[in-house]
Design goal:
The chain is an alpha/beta fold. Helix content is 45%, strand content 15%. It has a seven-stranded parallel sheet with strand order 3-2-1-4-5-6-7, with helices on both faces.
Length: 271
């Protein structure tokens, strides 16, 4: 390890089980010398294995509903008390679509479900940043990273309303990144990750086929959760102190590739 986060304090949201990107980020942050608190919604904590992660990384857990300003206020207040000062990094790894869970087509979206998805997966990011800024809870030069997906820019029919929600998430990162950067030099970026075999990802209809397709398109293949964690660690570190308001693709080159030889061969289009 490189001690990239030695002496840094943070908050990591969304670790559910060992397949979670947030879980891998916590492991890597621990290896790189950081101390942090873990947080997730109470219902997710009952479903997951976060206690094992807390024990492994010597971390404390603060349950918090990311849609609640009061609970987020408690999260940032308690985190500073536990860690002994302001935080240096925050990972937003929160996403949920009831429409996807219930297999409702995009053109027939239930709008109550749609609004729930927006609140949980995008507005929670704004609320988190607003609370942190109000409390002055992030050190100058700190870094905030949210996980996103390329459906915010291009159409993936199976991603339904989450595509619109991720577009909002990325816009919040740019807009809030300007204000927080101007006032406190806090960096805010999103990482657009390859399709990844997490509990949330594999719940999407047709995920397996698309995972294989993306893997065949990307020159380097799909980036896995562990390599995404490595990338997040660099964004938390001082090595990227001038990077902000960016949507950063971490996808093995998929987003820049029109078609690959492998896919053409599978379709019988190449001699």
């Amino acid at each position: 390890m490189y001690n990239l986060l030695k002496g840094k304090r943070g908050i990591i949201t969304g670790a559910l089980d060992q397949n979670s990107i947030a879980w891998k980020v916590a492991e890597k942050a621990h290896e790189e010398g950081a101390s942090f608190v873990l947080t997730n919604a109470p219902i997710a904590m009952r479903m997951g294995e976060i206690n094992a992660l807390a024990e492994k990384t010597g971390s404390q857990i603060i349950p918090a509903d990311a849609t609640s300003v009061d609970e987020l206020t408690n999260l940032f207040t308690q985190s500073q008390e536990i860690l002994g000062g302001k935080v240096d990094f925050v990972l937003h790894s929160i996403g949920m679509s009831v429409n996807i869970r219930k297999k409702i087509p995009y053109t027939e979206s239930n709008y109550d479900y749609f609004m729930k998805g927006i609140d949980v997966s995008a507005l929670s990011f704004h609320k988190m940043l607003a609370v942190a800024k109000k409390l002055d809870a992030i050190n100058e030069g700190g870094s905030v990273v949210a996980l996103t997906y390329m459906a915010a820019q291009r159409t993936y029919p199976f991603y339904t309303d989450m595509a619109d929600i991720k577009a909002m998430l990325e816009s919040i990162a740019r807009s809030f990144g300007y204000h927080y950067g101007l006032e406190k030099k806090v960096r805010i970026n999103t990482v657009s990750q390859s399709p990844t075999k997490t509990s949330a990802g594999t719940g999407i209809k047709g995920f397996g086929d698309f995972f294989d397709y993306a893997d065949a398109i990307a020159p380097l293949g799909n980036a896995d959760a562990e390599s995404c964690a490595d990338y997040c660690i660099t964004l938390f570190s001082d090595l990227t102190r001038m990077v902000t308001m960016q949507n950063l693709f971490h996808d093995g080159g998929y987003s820049s590739t029109g078609v690959s030889d492998i896919v053409m061969k599978k379709m019988g289009l190449e001699e």
